[in-house]
Structure formats: structure tokens, C-alpha cells
């Protein structure tokens, strides 16, 4: 399901994913995910992008994970970056910038303060080496707070 959800986020962000959808559907079927539209999607060829996108949207609705709007996709990307900060995966500076960037363009005014906080942490990243651990700890705390305040709608991994 994670691959399908990731493709749904990319689709919501207007990325061209149509050619990847039939193969992703086939992979999902082999992992036990199933719906009538998913089976139909898996049978399409690579050149049927428009039909694949329509079937993919229908599939995700059937699976209970509809393709989000762009704001929802940006919130998902913010959650993903925050979870990576908390887990110690990736560069905290890059992840803080990602959260800031997505918050700025989310269109959700309530996320503006979140973006500003991560901008502050990102901008302050150039601290001396003896303060680097404190900076990472501050980013982890901010990320954990964000995740608690903005839980995912879909609790499945």
C-alpha cells in the first residue's frame, strides 16, 4: 500500500505518474492488496496514462485511501519529513527545509507557524559543532510536536 499511497501523493502534486500505475497495481496485487479497479489497472499497458490515472483514483477510493488534494499531499510530505527527523533518517537541515517549503505552499494558514518554526531551525543550523547536538534535539522536538498536533488520517504504515 505504501507504494500506492506514494504515487497518490505524487499525482496530487501534479507529477506525471500514469505510466507507472499499471506496474504498481500489479505489484500491489502480488502483495495481497485487491480491488476490482486495481485488477483492471494492472491490466493496462504503459501507453494508457490517462485511463490509468482515472482508474488509479477509483482504486484508491475503493481501498479507502483517496488521492488527496494538493494541500493534503503537502501535509503528508511534511509529516513524512518530520517522522524522518524524529527517526534520525536523512539530513535534519534538508528535512526542516522540506517542512518549511511544504508549509509555505500548502495553502493552509494554520501550517504557517509550523513552517516558520522550521525555517528558524533551518536558518540556525549553521551553529558551531559544539551546538550541533542541541540543534538536532530542537528539530526532533519540533518534529515530534508537529506529528502530535497533526496526526495522519490513515494510521496504517
Query: Structural class of the helix and strand makeup?
Result: mainly alpha
General shape: elongated
Report how far the terminal alpha carbons are from each other: 8 Å
Radius of gyration of CA atoms, rounded to a whole number: 18 Å
In N-to-C order, the SSE pattern is HHHHHHHH
Estimate the strand proportion: under 5%
> Which bin fits the share of residues in helices?
55-70%
Count all strands and give the number: 0
Name the poorly predicted regions: none
Average pLDDT taken over every residue: 88
Main beta-sheet strand count, sense and barrel state: none
In DSSP terms (H or I, runs of 4 or more residues), the helix count works out at 8
Give your account of this protein's structure.
The termini are close together. The mean pLDDT is 88. The chain has 157 residues and is an all-alpha fold. It is built from 8 helices and no strands. Helices cover 66% and strands 0% of the residues.
List keywords for this structure.
mainly alpha; about 0% strand; about 65% helix; about 160 residues
Summed up:
This protein is an all-alpha fold and 157 residues long. 66% of the residues lie in helices and 0% in strands.
Itemize the secondary structure elements and their pairings.
Elements: H1 2-12, H2 21-30, H3 36-42, H4 49-62, H5 70-87, H6 92-105, H7 112-123, H8 132-149
Helix pairs in contact: 1-4, 1-5, 2-3, 3-4, 5-6, 5-8, 6-7, 7-8
Amino acid at each position: 500500500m505504501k507504494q500506492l499511497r506514494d504515487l497518490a501523493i505524487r499525482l496530487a502534486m501534479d507529477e506525471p505518474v500514469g505510466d507507472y500505475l499499471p506496474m504498481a497495481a500489479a505489484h500491489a496485487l502480488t502483495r495481497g492488496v485487491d480491488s476490482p479497479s486495481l485488477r483492471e489497472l494492472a491490466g493496462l499497458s504503459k501507453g494508457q496514462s490517462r485511463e490509468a490515472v482515472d482508474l488509479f483514483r477509483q482504486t484508491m477510493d475503493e481501498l479507502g485511501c483517496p488521492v488527496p488534494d494538493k494541500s493534503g499531499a503537502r501535509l503528508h510530505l511534511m509529516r513524512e519529513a518530520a517522522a524522518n527527523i524524529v527517526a534520525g533518517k536523512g539530513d535534519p537541515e534538508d528535512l526542516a527545509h522540506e517542512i518549511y517549503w511544504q508549509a509555505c505552499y500548502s495553502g493552509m494558514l494554520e501550517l504557517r507557524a509550523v513552517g516558520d518554526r522550521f525555517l528558524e531551525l533551518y536558518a540556525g543550523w549553521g551553529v558551531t559543532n559544539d551546538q550541533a547536538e542541541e540543534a538536532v534535539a530542537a528539530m526532533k522536538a519540533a518534529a515530534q510536536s508537529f506529528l502530535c498536533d497533526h496526526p495522519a488520517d490513515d494510521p496504517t504504515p
